[in-house]
Amino acid sequence: MKIRIGDIAAVRQGLSRSGRSAGARPGDARVLLVSGNNIRDDQIDVTGLETILIHESEFTAKHLLRPYDVVVTGKSTAVKAAYVPPSTGRAVANSTLIVVSPHDADMGLYLWWFLTSREGRRA
């Protein structure tokens, strides 16, 4: 049985920080920035995360990562995926990443497992 990812999770692009986007406006909300370079061995290397300041708004709040979200490279030749551990803190994914937010947090680890599997990478 096949299940569409959109049936079990919301899928969105990471926060854009260029042009006229809300993420491009400077602000005083301090958040960590996750990029594809921070994904190593299917995990987020939290020691290398950059801290950025963004304008806090309803739009930027929607981009905050939640524990057990899964981030996947979207604009890369190498497919990488990692789940967001609860210890990450306030963070956003950059615009090169796709964020998969499961409707049920318990599905986060399953989605990560699938997306890092041989079959999931092919799909």
Q: If you had to describe this structure to a student in words, what would you say it looks like?
A:
Helix content is 19%, strand content 29%. It is an alpha+beta fold and 123 residues long. The strands form three sheets. The protein has a four-stranded antiparallel beta sheet. Strands 5-2-8 form a three-stranded mixed beta sheet, with no helix packed on it. Strands 3-4 form a two-stranded antiparallel ribbon. The longest helix has 10 residues, at 107-116.
The helix-and-strand class reads alpha+beta
Rg calculated over all Cα atoms = 14 Å
Tertiary shape = globular
Q: State the order of secondary-structure elements, H for helix, E for strand.
A: HEEEEEHEEEEHH
Q: What is the topology, as strand order, of the major beta sheet?
A: 1-9-6-7
In helices, the fraction of residues equals 10-25%
* Number of DSSP-assigned strands: 9
- What is the count of helical runs? 4
- Spans of at least 5 consecutive residues with low confidence: none
Average pLDDT level:
87
What is the makeup of the main sheet?
4 strands, antiparallel
Q: Topology, pairings included?
A:
Elements: H1 5-8, E1 9-13, E2 29-34, E3 39-40, E4 43-44, E5 50-54, H2 58-61, E6 70-73, E7 81-83, E8 91-93, E9 97-102, H3 107-116, H4 118-122
Parallel strand pairs: 2-8
Antiparallel strand pairs: 1-9, 2-5, 3-4, 6-7, 6-9
How would you briefly describe this protein structure?
With 123 residues, the protein is of the alpha+beta class.
Attribute tags:
about 30% strand, 3-stranded mixed sheet, about 120 residues, 4 helices, alpha+beta, 4-stranded antiparallel sheet
